[in-house]
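U., I forgot to send this yesterday:
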Amino acid sequence: MTNPWEEISLSDYENHMKLDSVMQLQNLNQMMKDQFSTYPVSSVMVLGIAGGNGLEHIDNNKFEKVYGVDINREYLAAVTRRYSDISNILECIQLNLIEEADKLPKAELLIANLLIEYIGYDCFQKAVKQVQPQYISCIIQININDKWVSDSPYIHVFDGLDEVHHQVEEDLLIQTLDNIGYKKIA
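Result:
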């Protein structure tokens, strides 16, 4: 079965995310800047990297390795094109986390922004166990109603995501990570 994320074009995804009514591309960019600079690490893995939003904040003097992981080949090809300035440390990995988390390499920092909602707690826990990071930094979307995709002209592009969407709650995510030895620090 094809994952719906393999069918969503990067331009539709990014155009939706950057709309003034959505503002996720812009907000995530600043949050990723903080994620990259906060932790004393030399390797980072970004799960669900999409088009690489935020990678311009990678400090070549700090990081020795940056892994970008996504299920969509088109997204990873865009990352490679857009961030050729860090090609010496950037490695893009195309895989389905639900089926292939055991193929992930190790990294000191694991970033998962707006991703856990599409793989679920168990799969995320499995990925964390495989990567064995010192730090995990995640951004989740808390939904206050039944709508979990912001209204936009692109909304129907995301119709297939109902098949893989999981409602994620902060307390349950903290408990899931606590169960495998990770404690909330901020």
